[in-house]
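Feature request disguised as a bug: please show the residue count (365) next to Tumor protein p53 inducible protein 3 in the output. Example input:
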Amino acid sequence: MLPPRGDYSRFDFAAGKKEEVRNCLRRFVEKMLAAYFDCPGGPENLYVKEVMKPHPGEGEVLVKVSASALNRADLLQRRGKYPPPKGASDILGLEAAGSVAGLGPGCKGQWKIGDAVMALLSGGGQAEYVTVPEGCLMPAPNDLTFIEAAAIPEAWLTAFQLLHFVGKIQKGERVLIHAGASGVGMAAIQLVKLAKAIPIVTAGTQEKLKATANAGAAAGFDYKNEDFSEKVLAFTQGSGVDIILDCVGGSYWEKNLNCLSTDGRWIIYGLLSGGDVNGDLLARLLSKRGTIHTSLLRSRDKEYKEKLVKAFTENVLPYFAHGVSPRLQPFVDSVYPLHEIAEAHRAMEENRNIGKIVIEMPVST
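Example output, currently without the count:
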């Protein structure tokens, strides 16, 4: 006797037949596998669940996901601290790479079935299928695998947005990148170099600093064992940095202001240390004529994201091809199969990764 509809993933079929029967049942009822949690909490709450396969709506494309990648937002959502925007999937995953599997009504003909694509998402990427507004898709670079391509959309578009849309980076400027060995950090290093500016980073281990140097950082400092602001001032001969990309927040405010140049831009896009500030921040900021910008990408509207994706596709994506100089490269730290999603979350929570942690979807027929 079969279990009630929707419980097939937990049914103990006869040995050797379970996967075959499950695949048949999933095809019949249009189910798919997805990373899921029933209540907020630790990584142990994560499991793989069978859910309904989505159908593309007006102007949407259905993508068969080969790989997704993990972001800090996924960890926050799992803890119940960062719910998806209204109307977005509650499945984890802000980026994916795979192939076009279906087209919704009203699509303009930019994509066809079988195209290799990358997707910027508001959610839903850590599943076998996801629907995406057609303007939030990019062609996957021919020279990259889906594993590598999955490491691009969220991290690289975040870094590109912060530097160009928000920070208005200029040639020759000095940019301090906190968490330099993170996915966004490694992307930002290369994008700063592409803009003919100077990337400077902070990181927590010598191994991570070495990786950032290999990615192109002009200088790097261990925030755990030295005052990065004093080191930055020494490196810049007292001038400080023109832009700070800050995902840390409250605990760094004094050191950030100490090494921010006159008329510098301090861009906050995360609060890993919290948002509390104790001290005379505004007076010190005013004395330098500095500006604070804050930015989130996930909650931006579709039109903004489509404009961002278009600009990135035109101005950055060509540099991922072989034979182009400078050649950009996504950094993949590790790959976890979907059923090890909890371990992937633990790895990120423990700051073990250099570059991106990628989640690979199971091969289905």
